[in-house]
Structures are given as C-alpha cells and as structure tokens.
Amino acid sequence: MIGPRPASPRDVKFTRRRFLGGAGGLAVMGAPFSSLAPPDAGSAISLPTPLDNLLALIRIQASLREEDVPWWYSGVIYGAEDGKAPRLLFGFEGMEMYWMRHLAAGEFELVGHTVSFLKDAESGEWLGEWRNPYTGETLEAPAAVQGGGAGRGFNYSEKGIRPTPFIEQMPEKPPAYRVLSGGGQVWLSKETEYPPGMAPPRLQRQTMSCPLDAFNNPAIERLSTQFASTVFMPWRAWMRMDGRPGHLIWHAAGLKLDSVESLPPSYRERLETEHPDKLTARPG
C-alpha cells in the first residue's frame, strides 16, 4: 500500500457480543430476515447496526484482510425481446478478483476486475466467432473485461455502497440486504448499486451463501462463500443490434476460491495467456 496503514477492521469495536448481541432473529437494518426454524442460542443472527451489516457483508463477499479474493463462476446468457420467450444465446465462464482496501476507520473500497469468456451454449467450447440469430451476422466474440484500481472501485461504509467516482452524486443509504437461514446455511441477497446515467435496463440481484456457524463467528475474516446472480443489461455493442428492442439476461453461479491456483485449468490457461495482468487485484 501507498502511505501509512489505514485503520484495520480490528480497530473497529467488532466483538462477538457486538456481532451476535441479542437472541432475536430480525437483525438486518431495513430488510426482512427469514428462518426455516426458530433460532436457538447458537444460531441466532443479529446485525443491529449499519456497521454490523457492513462488516458481515465484507466477510461474505470478500475479506476483512487486504488480499486477493478470487471468485469463479459459470453461466448462460439469454436474449429477450418484447412479447417473445427469451432465447439462449451463449454460455460464459469467468473470474472476479476482489481486493478490499482499508480506508478510514469503518470505511473500505472494493477494487478489482472481471474477465469472462463466452462459450457455445450447447457444447461448452470457447467461442471465437458467434452467429447472431437476430441479424444473421457472424461476429467476433470478445472477452468481457472490466474493473478498476484504487479510486475507481466501490466505497463501502455505514453510509452505503457507492461507486467511488460517483460517491457525491448518490444518496447515503446504509447497507441492507435480505437474509435467510436454514439447514445450517445463511443466504444474503442484495442488488448492485450502479453509477447514475447508465443505459437501462440494468439490474443485478445476487445471493451469497455460507455456513451459518462460520457467519456467526467474527474471528473468521474471510468466509467460504457460494453465489448465484441474475443480471439484466442492454445488448452488447459488439452484437451490432442496431437499435433492435430488447436486452440481455445473464445468470451465473460460482464460489469464492482460496487462490487463482484453484481456477479450472482451461480457464486459468486462457486467462494467463490473454490477460496475465488480471491474476491479482493488488492496488499498484
């Protein structure tokens, strides 16, 4: 890191009593909590403050330590036109690499990047070219690469989760999400906060899951998490839809990995060949 070490999450009063305080189940600020069974003393979830919500979210999504946090995922993409059934267009496989920067006490910035490669929806083979079923045109199928470094990520604080470059343009909204527990698991569901002015439709709903006992143990700073996500977004420019009404629906599932060494070999080989700079999200 550049400059003096910012306050650590350990500098925040984040004790087991604070994290679990109370035996009730309704705990998340501004969002409902559901349980498949009455909570007992060992399984109750209590997140009574925005700070509790924030730190719990960081543990399940990334890590309370400053380190690389890779996620692997695989999914499918549909095309949707008004009045017609969605059409399966292609599959995809990718990785998101996170790094949670520590800023002032109780404030963080999530930086990182995403690299997704398209696949044939039926065979699962990597796509080099793709025939657009709407236009009949054969097109190059590029990788989807995005992300940003320090100052271009998402600011996480008790005031909300907002894209850092647009933090002054977005209202304060304390972190809130829906929580469900049952069968020894906990699920957190939330929507992504997008910068203002992005073309509609644009919405992402993500659900992350981990063992309930680990979630209730604040000594675990980086939870082992699985996820599923659905995204609505406009046609991609490279598809050359030329103003055709409609949009894309992405659906993916995956999990947090210990390191990039755990990536599937075929994906990791392509990532190392084409985007070797994306193997870490450590701020420069």
Short recap of the structure:
By secondary structure, the chain is mainly β. Helix content is 11%, strand content 36%.
| SSE succession | HEHEEEEEEEEEEEHEEH
- So what's the overall shape? globular
The tally of helices reads 4
In the residues, how many domains can be counted?
Answer: 1
Helix content: 10-25%
Span between termini: 8 Å
Structural class: mainly beta
Number of strands: 14
Radius of gyration: 20 Å
What are the key terms here?
single chain, 284 residues, 12-stranded mixed beta sheet, 4 helices, 36% strand, disordered N terminus
Descriptive report:
With 284 residues, the chain is mostly beta strands. The protein has one domain (9-278). Helix content is 11%, strand content 36%. Strands 1, 2, 3, 4, 7, 8, 9, 10, 11, 12, 13 and 14 form a twelve-stranded mixed β-sheet that branches. Strands 5-6 form a two-stranded antiparallel sheet. A hairpin with a 2-residue loop joins strand 10 and strand 11. The N and C termini lie close together (8 Å). 28% of the residues are buried.
Write the layout of secondary structure elements.
Elements lengths: L15 H5 L12 E3 L14 H12 L7 E12 L6 E16 L5 E12 L9 E3 L6 E3 L3 E5 L5 E4 L2 E4 L14 E5 L2 E7 L11 E9 H4 L10 E8 L13 E10 L8 H10 L10
Parallel strand pairs: 1-10
Antiparallel strand pairs: 2-3, 2-14, 3-4, 4-7, 4-8, 5-6, 8-9, 10-11, 11-12, 12-13, 13-14
